[in-house]
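Pipeline run #58 for the internal structure catalog. This entry was flagged by the ingest filter as a single-chain record with no existing model, so it goes straight to prediction. Upstream metadata was stripped on purpose; only the residue string is passed forward. Reviewer on rotation: M.T. Logging verbosity set to normal.
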Amino acid sequence: MKLYIKTFGCQMNDRDSEALCGLFLDRGYILVSEPEDADVILVNTCSVREHAENRAISFLGSLKKITNYKLQITNYRFQITDYKMVIGLVGCMAKNRGEELFKKMSHLDLIIGPANFDKVPYYIEKIRKEGVRIIDIEDKERKEDFYSSSFRVRKDYAYVVISTGCSNYCSYCIVPFVRGPLRLRNPEDIIDEVKRNVKLGIKKITLLGQNVNDYQYRLSAEGSTRGSTRGGFASGEGFASGEGSASGGQITDYKLQIIDFVKLLRMIEKIEGIEKIDFVTSHPKNTSRELFELMANSQKIKKHLHLPFQSGSDRILKLMNRGYTKEDYLNLVNDYKEIVRGTLSTDIIVGFPTETEEDFFETKDVLERVRFKYAYIFKYSPRPHTSAFKLEDDVPLKEKERRHKILLDSQRKISLEFINEK
């Protein structure tokens, strides 16, 4: 059996697609580079921006011609009447628009949300044997077995997911609605995966989470993290204090009640064989000096921080529910530059509802004062379910494009200066 996977979106989707490939390879499937050659096609999608959804929908539509043509050719050549190419839509867009697309696109056999990826091979076999169509967009905690495969796209570098979902509810962001609330992977499972990478010869890793600094894992009373309570903590919830240590990535002192992101980094840093550690993404509201100090003193953690600021306007930041001000952000950047002396990258949104020219120039001011090595700059698009979706999208597209170009041009000059400084 031959499998083709098309991925739209972020690094988290890349890792999900890689893990999905591993599940199928372990079952004897072969990966192919063209959809025309596949028996099973999976489209792993992103819903963060409308443009990404539109691209995925266009690709899904094109698959109908491929399946019809392949069915006709196969039946003609081999007189087979029950051949069926299986097409599955998986990931965030499946959760967001799966029911709509299931009705609209009859050639889609499987619709499955991010929480249920471990079931995909089982569902594919069921579809092939029984000729049914399946939709499963239930939200739940992802099973750890999903990460068990040894397949890696790259032989020198790997992504490791430390958490899924998000509970920050930035007003423009659909992630909590398509990936669910914040759910933390057990630190021992994370350590095990990092060690598996080392055994595969992979010495460079990137830790992935919607906000890595939200990682606050409570240990069980018995001392082992296995089977302990998982998930994020509400803002302001108290944590039990305690000292703990980690040797070779193992937890050795269970008096520690909480493993936060800095402690998790220290555990991973001690794993023999790991040479380089990177992570994304950090939220400004809970990025700490403690993290900066660890980055500065570590020989393994990359001296680079992706720190989205989204807008330089305090008014817009409040509407975005970001939890910090322009001054807070700039002070944090100053701390980072003073302690770590590393580079920065960021995310920016232009044209958020009610954004004025004055608001925009506050954003431009941050871009030019901080001097990011690179920046991802996006035009605002309304996302269903989010609180900003209720606001009028009142910044005209042409104005969004103008502001977008101004920031892109400014950032290109800054990025070129970084290149010339080498």
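catalog note: The chain has twelve helices and 18 strands.
catalog note: The radius of gyration is 23 Å.
status: ready for reviewer M.T.
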